[in-house]
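PROTEIN ENTRY
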Amino acid sequence: MRKNICFKITDIRIVLLAFCATLSTAASALPYYYTDWTTANPAAGTAHGVMTLPDSSTVTVDFSAVYANGSPGSFVGAYTASDWAGWSVFSSAYLSSQVSNIPFPDMLQLMGGQNQIYKVHLSAAIKDPIMAIVSLGANGTNTHYNFDSPFTILSQGNDYWGGCATCLTQSGNDLIGNEGSGTIQFNGTFSDFSWTVPTGEYWHGFTFGIRTTLALEPNPPSSNVPEPATLSLMGLGLAALVAKRKVMK
């Protein structure tokens, strides 16, 4: 009987190890779907883009720069020729345990210190959207993005002008860059958010990306419930244990 129990405990351990490995794989980085900025009017402070998900559904993105009194602002410009692709040599700044791909295809650029509010409106409620940023601040010049929403820094690294693995820092909802490039993730579900850039530093680029929408993956999240494939593996393992136990009797 002791030997029989020993085999059973060992086999259960194997199944549990396989189960944990499956959960670890499920938690690996995933692709995000970035904004294709289709139109931009920098002088009027507006831009429009679209994010396309694998099921061909789309989420539109409207950006606007406005002054505190509501009058239109402006921004530096829009790059619309697959500009992030040129940053692939600096891809480590944008890849993380959550994000498996670099931003693509284009970006908008700002100049700080304009006393403007930068607003983004999404056509659907988005779970944990991300923002990719390039060249926030300069060596010796800290530039701030003061957001109205909480976020987490996912990754950062070198860029064309330098940068480093610690050039982006965070203080509450304030992102501080000293030639910082990387990706941040807003914590929660959003269709609107905004930020200001009080420091007068010229040229920093950004874009937005999503993994899914609230409609496609409703709350509460299903991450605490094993996926069907995981349940199948557990079932096969337990069935094998039952079969083996019958044979050994």
About this structure: Confidence is low (pLDDT under 50) at residues 1-26, 223-249. Helices lie at 2-26, 228-248. The first strand starts at residue 33 and ends at 34.
